[in-house]
Specification:
There is one protein chain. The chain is of the alpha+beta class and 84 residues long. It has a single domain, classed as 2-Layer Sandwich (Double Stranded RNA Binding Domain). The chain contains 2 helices and 3 strands, in the order E-E-E-H-H.
Length: 84
């Protein structure tokens, strides 16, 4: 997923226990990685893992509220296919 200034990518563990979100600013070497873990009693859900890990990555990067809106709008407008 891409926003105006950032590129967001998700990766998943082979056993579907961890969802990692990497947030990279365009034209910069700095990136933030955040993870969401599945409870052993829960079923794995990509959508939930993406939302939690994206939220943590945005918080860790210290992105202001005005830009956070841009991330969530881009997330909601993603389509199934190559980007998921």
């Amino acid at each position: 997923m891409k926003t105006q200034n950032y590129e967001v990518r998700w990766s998943y563990s082979e056993d579907h226990k961890v969802t990692n979100c990497s947030l990279k600013k365009k034209g910069s070497v700095v990136s933030t990685i955040a993870s969401a873990y599945t409870n052993p009693n829960d079923n794995f859900c990509r959508d939930t893992g993406r939302k939690i890990s994206l939220s943590r990555a945005i918080r860790m990067a210290g992105i202001p509220k005005e830009q956070r809106i841009e991330f969530w709008d881009a997330y909601r407008s993603m389509k199934k296919g190559g980007r998921w």
